[in-house]
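Reading is simple: the token line describes the chain's fold. The lines below illustrate.

. . .
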Amino acid sequence: RAAAVLAVSVAFCALASAGASAQSSINFSGGASIDPEQVYAGVSWTSPDIGGRFRVRPGIDGGFGNGLRLANINVDLIVKFPLGTSGWSLIQGGGPVITVSRLSDYDDAPRELHAGGSYLFGFQHDNGFFADFRVGGGGFVPSLKIGAGWGVEIK
């Protein structure tokens, strides 16, 4: 069910932003989270510019550790602010988070569905490298995620 929601969100964003001039990208990221203490890896899609500097960035990541497995589905609205001619941009934004959790210490542990939100702050270079901090709130949404990754433009 969560995969269907993500697929519909991505399709909507792709259709809504078809006339934008900037390129979209697929982003691969990884890092660590605090509360719960975990490592995570994920993938996201960033839309072309929508109405200026705004972009939509839905994504999914999986966290492992601390006796818990988490799958986080984010749908973020982000804005990019170029930092002069350096090639770097400040990115910030946020949005809703759906988290599917499961205790990893028990084979028959049920999966639980939780909802929350998060705020994103980071930096991105024109070559695709990015680093960000994500502050979250809500059931099983990690309180702080620190990550880095690489974005590949879709031409």
About this structure: The helical segments are 2-16. The beta strands are 24-34, 38-46, 54-65, 68-82, 88-103, 112-125, 129-138, 144-154.
